[in-house]
Amino acid sequence: MRFVLAIVAFVVAAVMIVAGIAQRTIFAPPSQVTAAATVPADTRYIVIDSAVLNAHPGQQTLSVSGSKNAKTQVVAYGRTADVKAWLADQKYADISYRAGDSAVTVKTVTPKSGLTGSSGSTGSTGAASTATPAPTATPTPAPTGSTPAQAATPGPDPAGSDLWLDEYDGQDAQVTKMNVPSGVSVIVAGDGTTPAPNKIVLTWPVDTSTPWAFPLIIGGLVLLVIGIALYLWGLYTHRRSRGPRRKSGPKMPKLPKAPKYKPTASLEATPRGRRSSRRTRVMAPALLAGVLALTGTGAGAAFAETSTPTPTPTPTATTGAPNANSNTPPPAVTAPQLERIIKRISVAAANADAKNDPNLAKLRFAGPALQLRTANYAIRVKKADQPALPAIPAGPLELSLPQATDSWPRTVTAVVKMPNDATGKPQAPLALALVQQTPRDNYLVEYAIALEPNVKVPNLAPASIGAAVVPPDSKLLKVQPDQVAAAYGDILLNGEKSKWYPSFDLTDDKLVAQVGASWKQQEQARLAQQFGQTSTLTFAGRVGAGPVISMATNDSGAIVWVNPEEVQLHRVTEAGAQVIAGATTAALSGVAQSNTGIESVYGYQLAFYVPPAGSNEKVRLLGFAQGLVSAREVQ
């Protein structure tokens, strides 16, 4: 018997081990699913929607090839609406995929007439060719109606666009791994002039885990050991049973057999009755046990139903209301996207500052920030000891407040931590207001200011939600955003005499202390004492050309960015007298002295917190930047 059990154990062990190994080898599932597509060779842009990328679970791997110049190829992804807005008037190939039959569809999409990329409108697109499903991505013919002139017209270059959530260029675009969520599309392109890579391969991982392989192999080995043990035990027992035996003594004589009793027919009823009663006695307890078991079960069930009834689940009302923000536009940028934008701005600003080149500054600056930097460059060319404006650090970000919008222009506010100065002292953080005018434009710095020490920033919306832009003429704030510049400029000129003075909190305002009404009076008195009545110094305020940017706060207030300007006019009032320009003014105006007068314009970049209308709080200055932006001789 032991040998039989050992053989059975050997057979079962062999089957289990072979089955476990087979699951890991010949029966192992494929490690990935692949879909390939080939687009027309002259296609400049290819779009792959998130529905295609998420056709199978797991991380997607995108491989591109076939580009005439691998250095110019670009693979980027962004929100689907943003990708379509960026393409705007450009023809592109749209790739679709059916996971059921692994069919790939390539469709050429041509925009409707009148759609321009600079407008920022997405519009709707029309299909130019009929898609033909093919497992190996049969390329569709080029759409008719295109002329050689249209084909020769260069398209926009997607490389370096701030619109993308992430981007891969050159050799890095050959193979990219990504986890694209719903609502995001991938764009594959060249530099707008050369065609995009025309061979696209998408790969998804497949779960190749075999949870039963290891238990089968281990179980088979265990059975093998048991079989060996049984075989050795049986062999040992068999050998012992074949050893020498002792001879037994003489057998006892058999006793004579008593005659068998044969009952008569009349007495057979009793034994049969005994057997019948014995069977009855045997069957009765069994039947009784079965009845008791059945009755016991029924009684137990009845008892359970009467004493501890099973509670019936009832639906509970949902306390949370439906998501009210389901239709809220997404934030203009994500946190990683903004970090990448700030790094690009930092590099561009460093290049422009090193060369004092306003044309390089225009790549990343606009409005008041560009005006101040351009003036600083012009001064530094003629006045080498003129300090440069603060550099734009690459990070880290201390605060980001993107606008919640799906249209253009888009506004983003960011606060970047500044490194310590040359002496090791900490510097105030730098606040930036960025604006993207169209989908194909990059974000430009409109305002760049240093925050006030110990500034109290109001409660803002999280970066993942974004904030709304407040209209410049909104009357829901204590001071209309488009009136803040003129109101603060009036305070700088007239001080406590200004009608706006009670509306502003000037307790810790450093700018008023530096260039406010008291300082202006001191300057006028100093010139009168030094030069008598030979000249006059007057001040006037005006609103600069910079945009009014208002970002809503959580308390219904707003962060307001404005650009007031101050005009200083030093005019000669006595014949023969001259006005001597300062070194900075002379460097910018090119006039060291004048017989008539010199006009200097100082630009201010200011950020305020404006509380809501009816609030007991006052408008307070959060940060500022100021400097000479123009100077000229007047007649």
Primary descriptors:
alpha+beta; 635 residues; single chain; 24% strand; 3 domains
Q: Which residues sit in consecutive blocks of at least 5 with pLDDT less than 50?
A: 114-150, 265-325
Shape from CA axes? elongated
**pLDDT averaged residue by residue:** 83
Q: What portion of the residues fall into strands of 2 or more residues?
A: 15-25%
Strand-pairing-aware structural class: alpha+beta
Distance between the termini: 126 Å
Radius of gyration, CA atoms, in whole angstroms = 44 Å
Helix coverage percent of residues? 25-40%
Number of DSSP strand runs: 24
Largest sheet: 11 strands, mixed
How many domains?
A: 3
- Count of helical segments? 13
Give an account of the 3D structure.
This protein is an alpha+beta fold and 635 residues long. The protein folds into three domains: 2-28 and 210-238; 32-205, no CATH class; 335-633, no CATH class. The chain has 13 helices and 24 strands. The protein has helices spanning 2-24, 50-53, 80-87, 148-152, 213-241, 269-307, 335-355, 358-361, 367-382, 481-494, 510-515, 517-531, 583-589; strands at 32-38, 45-48, 60-65, 74-79, 92-98, 103-111, 125-127, 166-169, 175-178, 184-189, 199-205, 397-402, 410-416, 430-436, 444-451, 504-505, 535-543, 549-552, 558-562, 564-572, 579-580, 593-594, 597-610, 619-633. Strands 12, 13, 14, 15, 16, 17, 18, 19, 20, 23 and 24 form an eleven-stranded mixed β-sheet that branches. Strand 14 (430-436) and strand 15 (444-451) form a beta hairpin. Helix 1 (2-24) runs antiparallel to helix 5 and helix 9 packs across helix 13. It starts with a helix and ends with a strand. Residues 114-150 and 265-325 have low confidence and may be disordered.
